[in-house]
Amino acid sequence: MITGMKNTKTIYLVDDDDDDRMLIREAIESIVKDVEIVEVMDGQELLELIAQTDIEKDLSLILMDMNMPRMSGIESLSILKSDLSLRHIPVVMISTTSNNELIRQAYNKGINAYITKPVSIQEYNHLAEAINVCFLSNYPTLHPVPLSKNFTTQQILIVEDNHDHWELMKFVLNNSMPNIKLTRTEDEENTLFFLSTLLKNSQPLPELVLLDLYMPNRDNGLQILTAIRNFFAANRLMTIPIIVVSASDHIDDIKDSYRNNANGYMVKSPDLENSLAYFHELAYFWKSAITLPKKV
């Protein structure tokens, strides 16, 4: 594993509600190790804070409410994602709204995930565990997550050029989630052909993509990431989460994956047992905690 990511991770928590910030903070600090949480009142304050911070040296995660005074989450998101020096910062939007159009708009403007704001302590802890696994590359969680019954309709596309790595991922996922459907493609051409064939035949598209970064070099992986995004945009399809998977935890690999619109970045574990738990929990939390736009 390449070492390049600092141990302590900084989360910007942006919400105008004091109670919500307190509850989210307490849940995260009870679940996540080595985390620094910076509380921010609204989007305007967030941008002012970032302007004073050497953000290039700080791999941050932004948890942001949608509806805030002075500057809303959508407005500040637009500014963040239009600035190339800030696009690498993953943004998770947390809100009470269930308005599908607003959720769709947020994804179109570049959020990495949308999570409905919790209403119970159990749900706050679930949110914290999802953040821990999906965006901070920490595993496993404190409590075992449910098994295969949660994945009866899940289809996962794995883009991996290494046969041995594919066999390992297939073994791990099939053992923890035997009811899911797995498909492997090996390069950009095969990936786009597979997606085009599904669309042409009106077959369901994958609900999750796991994309190896080094295929065999990272430029190939980033190019495939962009090609998948362009395919969905060109065909006016609803977004699907694309998780970049790599043995590298180098900060430049993580930042460039987020700059190219990856939803998440997973650092592979050399330990088989850890990998099994991590892949299982990654799929579980994307299915159970994160909301995607509904088809209309």
UniProtKB/TrEMBL annotation:
Modified-residue entries (4-aspartylphosphate), positions: 65, 212
Biological-process GO terms, alphabetical: phosphorelay signal transduction system
Alphabetized UniProt keyword annotations: Phosphoprotein
Pfam families: Response_reg
Domain Response regulatory residue range list: 10-132, 155-283
InterPro entries per UniProt: CheY-like_superfamily, Sig_transdc_resp-reg_receiver, TCS_response_regulator
Stored PANTHER family: RESPONSE REGULATOR RCP1, RESPONSE REGULATOR RCP1-RELATED
Name assigned to this protein: Response regulator
